[in-house]
């Protein structure tokens, strides 16, 4: 049903996100070369003013703090996840980690922070980036089923809207958020999605449909 949806992850991201730091670091970070390559910068392993501007733009877009242009572990971890997502292409279940004998299934790969809907071995939608539980409130792994849906759910626990909420494990649900999918450290356990993807999941899934969560989110 429908063509696979390509991941949107440009090499250089500009604009959006929280306010930038007042100053830009001149310090060369431990992942300088990797970050330069990811951003399409000259790869020399030495921080420059232009490098810092590009790194800060990426950090501001995805809510990585401090937004000082330092090529540190968290910035490179975020980029590494993006690279793994791009590598998935249109065959996210190439290794068969998400069961293909359950019928229509929403798969969630915590390691790559990816989700997709498949019907048997056929890809129906995705893969798309998701934002799962942070350290201490990890999204639980295993075979689940959607049991409650609310298109305009309001969380009394967090006092926030959870549009297109589809619950599959206690208080854990698919739902849309407006922030970046690569915004650390993560959710309170839910599988956050971009609005268009959460709406597509709402239209594709029903109560009783299978959800399979596996892997381990980097940093948890």
From TrEMBL:
<dbReference type="InterPro" id="IPR036365">
    <property type="entry name" value="PGBD-like_sf"/>
</dbReference>
<dbReference type="Pfam" id="PF03734">
    <property type="entry name" value="YkuD"/>
</dbReference>
<dbReference type="InterPro" id="IPR005490">
    <property type="entry name" value="LD_TPept_cat_dom"/>
</dbReference>
<protein>
    <submittedName>
        <fullName>Murein L,D-transpeptidase</fullName>
    </submittedName>
</protein>
<keyword id="KW-0573">Peptidoglycan synthesis</keyword>
<dbReference type="InterPro" id="IPR038063">
    <property type="entry name" value="Transpep_catalytic_dom"/>
</dbReference>
<feature type="active site" description="Nucleophile">
    <location>
        <position position="190"/>
    </location>
</feature>
<keyword id="KW-0961">Cell wall biogenesis/degradation</keyword>
<keyword id="KW-0808">Transferase</keyword>
<comment type="pathway">
    <text>Cell wall biogenesis; peptidoglycan biosynthesis.</text>
</comment>
<feature type="domain" description="L,D-TPase catalytic">
    <location>
        <begin position="104"/>
        <end position="214"/>
    </location>
</feature>
<keyword id="KW-0732">Signal</keyword>
<feature type="signal peptide">
    <location>
        <begin position="1"/>
        <end position="21"/>
    </location>
</feature>
<keyword id="KW-0133">Cell shape</keyword>
<feature type="active site" description="Proton donor/acceptor">
    <location>
        <position position="175"/>
    </location>
</feature>
<dbReference type="InterPro" id="IPR050979">
    <property type="entry name" value="LD-transpeptidase"/>
</dbReference>
């Amino acid at each position: 049903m429908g063509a696979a949806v390509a991941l949107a992850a440009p090499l250089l991201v500009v604009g959006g996100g929280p306010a930038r730091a007042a100053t830009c670091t001149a310090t060369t970070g431990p992942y300088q070369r990797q970050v330069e390559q990811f951003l399409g910068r000259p790869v020399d392993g030495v921080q420059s003013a232009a490098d810092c501007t590009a790194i800060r733009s990426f950090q501001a877009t995805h809510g990585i703090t401090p937004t000082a242009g330092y090529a540190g572990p968290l910035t490179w971890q975020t980029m590494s996840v993006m690279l793994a997502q791009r590598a998935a292409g249109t065959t996210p279940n190439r290794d068969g980690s998400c069961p293909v004998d359950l019928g229509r299934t929403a798969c969630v790969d915590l390691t790559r922070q990816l989700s997709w809907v498949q019907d048997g071995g056929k890809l129906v939608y995705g893969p798309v980036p998701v934002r799962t539980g942070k350290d201490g409130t990890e999204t639980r792994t295993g075979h689940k089923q959607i049991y409650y849906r609310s298109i305009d759910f309001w969380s009394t626990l967090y006092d926030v809207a959870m549009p297109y909420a589809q619950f599959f494990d206690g208080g854990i649900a698919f739902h849309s958020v407006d922030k970046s999918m690569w915004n650390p450290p993560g959710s309170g356990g839910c599988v956050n999605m971009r609005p268009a993807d959460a709406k597509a999941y709402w239209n594709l899934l029903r109560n009783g449909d299978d959800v399979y969560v596996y892997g381990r989110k980097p940093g948890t």
